[in-house]
Write a structure and sequence with these properties.
The complex is a heterodimer of chains A (about 120) and B (about 120). Helix content of chain A is about 0%, strand content about 55%. By secondary structure, chain A is an all-beta fold. Chain A is globular and about 35 Å long. Chain B has about 120 residues and is an all-beta fold. In chain B, the strands form two sheets. In chain B, strands 2, 4, 5, 9, 10 and 11 form a six-stranded mixed β-sheet that branches. Chain B has a five-stranded antiparallel β-sheet with strand order 1-3-8-7-6, with no helix packed on it. Classes of the chains: A mainly beta (about 120), B mainly beta (about 120).
Chain lengths: ~120, ~120
């Protein structure tokens, strides 16, 4: 299985709602990522988990809360979002080493969740 | 901060012609350079990559070249086909003090192959 899956595919939420995005991979990868992508722009890194521990937080607002329950799952909890948070949210995974001594291997992206905040 | 410049932002070629996209990176410690293709509404897909100990890599109609001295790398697509039409992103690894690596993406090139 060389696929990263994400649910839901589309999500519309109000600014007072609480919702969660889910990501799953069964490739044995130990690094997982959340990216935000606006139209016609490159993916913008939000968070990186390495061996289920948060290793990078790119100064993301606290209304986005990541969670890595186990090595195969990655969640992104959303609360009190703003309309400008509307975007495609991509999950990715890659092989990694615990000390980060080796270059990260290629990242495999999921299909994304198209989020619209109204 | 670290960045990757990508040119051109748009590229139109006739079917069968070649296309070249160029990227320049700033972090001399970067050692892995992937290229992703993203079709409209779809996920970025890795099409080719190169590591810093290699100067060139080829996979059928796609090739990537790396010039470490000049800190730039290029994607070459030969015999272009309409299905090559997409946005292409280059990226370079960026090392951090903690040892964790992340990608720095270029701004993207929209390639249109005209039939």
């Amino acid at each position: 299985d060389t696929e990263v899956t994400q649910t839901p595919k589309h999500l519309v939420m109000g600014m007072t709602n609480k919702k969660s995005l889910k990501c799953e991979q069964h490739m044995g990868h130990r690094a997982m990522y959340w990216y935000k992508q606006k139209a016609k722009k490159p993916p913008e890194l939000m968070f990186v988990y390495s061996y289920e521990k948060l290793s990078i937080n790119e100064s993301v607002p606290s209304r986005f809360s990541p969670e890595c329950p186990n090595s195969s799952l990655l969640n992104l909890h959303l609360h009190a979002l703003q309309p400008e948070d509307s975007a495609l949210y991509l999950c990715a995974s890659s092989q990694d080493s615990p000390s980060g001594r080796y270059p990260t291997y290629e990242q495999y992206f999921g299909p994304g969740t198209r989020l619209t905040v109204t | 901060g670290e960045n990757v410049e990508q040119h051109p932002s748009t590229l139109s070629v006739q079917e069968g012609d070649s296309a070249v996209i160029k990227c320049t990176y700033s972090d001399s410690a970067s050692n892995y350079f992937p290229w992703y293709k993203q079709e409209l509404g779809k996920r970025p897909q890795l099409i080719i990559d190169i590591r810093s100990n290699v100067g060139e890599k080829k996979d059928q109609r796609i090739a990537v070249t790396l010039n470490k001295t000049a800190k730039h790398f290029s994607l070459h697509i030969t015999e272009t086909q309409p299905e090559d039409s997409a946005v292409y992103f280059c990226a370079a690894t960026h090392s951090r003090l903690s040892g964790t690596y992340k990608y720095i993406f270029g701004t993207g090139t929209r390639l249109k192959v005209l039939a």
